[in-house]
Amino acid sequence: MKALALLLALTLGLSASALAAPKEIPKGSELRASLFDLSRTTVEREAGQPVKFSGSIQRLGDWAFFNGQIVNAAGKPIRLGQAESADTAILWKIVDSEWQLITCAVGISDVAYASWPDTFGAPAALLFPEG
């Protein structure tokens, strides 16, 4: 059955990663650290202070997505904006063989990334893995 689905995807011009499930990038991994480092300057500029990231980074093919919170050195949420929220979403993609920060939303109170599949071409299966 998987072979048939892959053949259909290739026939329709879809990548094999479009059929795969997102995978968590492990805590402590070099990739996880480098992705956070790519976005740290942008997020810290919005937060007005140094940040740490608490949450999940999922990868699907050439894409990675963080959904979690920004916290201070003591692990307390850094609440921003009118919503006073620490919730943060970050999107990266491999471009020319290197990870690039595509966009981020900090201090969100809703699903700020709902338009990212249409706006940036991110796989919906990465942003909304439950379907």
Summarize the structure.
This protein is an alpha+beta fold and 131 residues long. The chain contains four helices and five strands.
Q: SSE layout and pairings?
A:
Layout: H1 2-11, E1 23-24, H2 30-47, E2 52-60, E3 63-71, E4 87-95, E5 98-106, H3 116-120, H4 124-127
Antiparallel strand pairs: 1-2, 2-3, 3-4, 4-5
Structure characterization notes:
It contains four helices and five strands. With 131 residues, the protein is an alpha+beta fold. It has one domain (22-123). A five-stranded antiparallel sheet has the order 1-2-3-4-5. A hairpin with a 2-residue loop joins strand 2 (52-60) and strand 3 (63-71). The protein is globular. It starts with a helix and ends with a helix. The relative contact order is 0.16.
Output the keywords.
131 residues, 5-stranded antiparallel β-sheet
Helical proportion, percent range: 25-40%
Distance from N terminus to C terminus (CA atoms, Å) equals 20 Å
- The residue-averaged pLDDT reads 86
Strand order in the sheet with the most strands: 1-2-3-4-5
Q: What is the string of helix and strand elements?
A: HEHEEEEHH
Q: How many individual β-strands?
A: 5
C-alpha Rg (nearest Å): 16 Å
- Low-confidence parts, pLDDT < 50 over ≥5 residues? 1-18
Q: Name the beta content range.
A: 25-35%
Global structural class:
alpha+beta
**Helical stretch count?**
4
